[in-house]
């Protein structure tokens, strides 16, 4: 039941089918770090952290008084996390050099989970000080670092059209809405992001081709537009045996850099 999608952060996900602030999540955050895997849990049960934790690295997650350190290939128990919410953990990523643990970066590790898929993002607050290796400096960035779930095979797409509704979230803003329509006969999709606080992040997801990636998974790669101006790109993967869900990321160019947005929705 395990599948993965190559990204900056590779996640492998298992499922049984089937924006909030910390107070909205309940005990699930601590349970994700301390409870054993429970196959009675509905929806996505686990994510295996692969390249997010490279060899010699450690990823420490903490929430609600619980903490756990993950190494390369360890699994995060997502079965206890609420669906359709952004679950948030404090994170520290470290590497061991000559017997000394050096912190590479710290901030907030975010997961938006659905029944068949999940989007992971890192709100990085501090990074290693290049001038003083055992200290950190403030430098904020937001990275949509991976997707995981039960991918939809391109040769098993349903007929007709489907409309998806869900979440768009970016740095300090989990209030965005995603609307996306896929025409399976025409092999094409388009949509929009709304209600993010930064106006130019509320972009159109321009019409783009639904196609197979190198693993024969159904994906869509297209452009983001603000007004008539091309602003960046978006990437969506389809999830579930009947393409019940979509998840991915959008980028919006701004000045010398670009802003990333996590996006996910369901029929």
UniProtKB/TrEMBL annotation:
GO terms under cellular component: cell outer membrane
User: Which InterPro entries does its entry note?
Assistant: FHBP, FHBP-like_C, FHBP_N, OMP/PagP_B-barrel
Q: Which residues form the Factor H binding protein N-terminal domain?
A: 2-87
**In terms of domain of life, where is this protein from?**
Bacteria
Q: Where in the cell is it found?
A: Cell outer membrane
Keywords (A to Z) from UniProt:
Signal
Q: Which residues form the signal peptide?
A: 1-18
Taking every annotated instance into account, which residue ranges of this chain make up the domain Factor H binding protein-like C-terminal?
Answer: 156-250
Report the Pfam families cross-referenced here. Answer: FHBP_C (PF08794), FHBP_N (PF20937)
NCBIfam families the record matches: factorH_bind
Listed name of the protein: Factor H binding protein
To which species is this protein native? Neisseria meningitidis
């Amino acid at each position: 039941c395990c599948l993965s999608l190559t990204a900056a952060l590779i996640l492998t996900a298992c499922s049984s089918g089937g924006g909030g602030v910390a107070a909205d999540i309940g005990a699930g955050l601590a349970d994700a770090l301390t409870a054993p895997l429970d196959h009675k849990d509905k929806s996505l049960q686990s994510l295996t952290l692969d390249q997010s934790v490279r060899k010699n690295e450690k990823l420490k997650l903490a929430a609600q008084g619980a903490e756990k350190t993950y190494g390369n290939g360890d699994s995060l128990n997502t079965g206890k996390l609420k669906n359709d919410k952004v679950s948030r953990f404090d994170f520290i990523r470290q590497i061991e050099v000559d017997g000394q643990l050096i912190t590479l970066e710290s901030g907030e590790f975010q997961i938006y989970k659905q029944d068949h898929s999940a989007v992971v993002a890192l709100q990085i607050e501090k990074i290693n000080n290049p001038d003083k290796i055992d200290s950190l400096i403030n430098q904020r960035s937001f990275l949509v670092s991976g997707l995981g779930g039960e991918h939809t095979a391109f040769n098993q797409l349903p007929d007709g059209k489907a409309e998806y509704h869900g979440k768009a979230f970016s740095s300090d803003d989990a209030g965005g809405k995603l609307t996306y329509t896929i025409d399976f006969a025409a092999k094409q999709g388009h949509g929009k992001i709304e209600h993010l606080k930064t106006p130019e992040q509320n972009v159109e997801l321009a019409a783009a081709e639904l196609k197979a990636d190198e693993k024969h998974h159904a994906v869509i790669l297209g452009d983001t537009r603000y007004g008539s101006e091309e602003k960046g790109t978006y990437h969506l993967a389809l999830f579930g045996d009947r393409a019940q869900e979509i998840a991915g990321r959008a980028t919006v160019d701004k000045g010398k850099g670009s802003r990333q947005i996590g996006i996910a929705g369901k029929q």
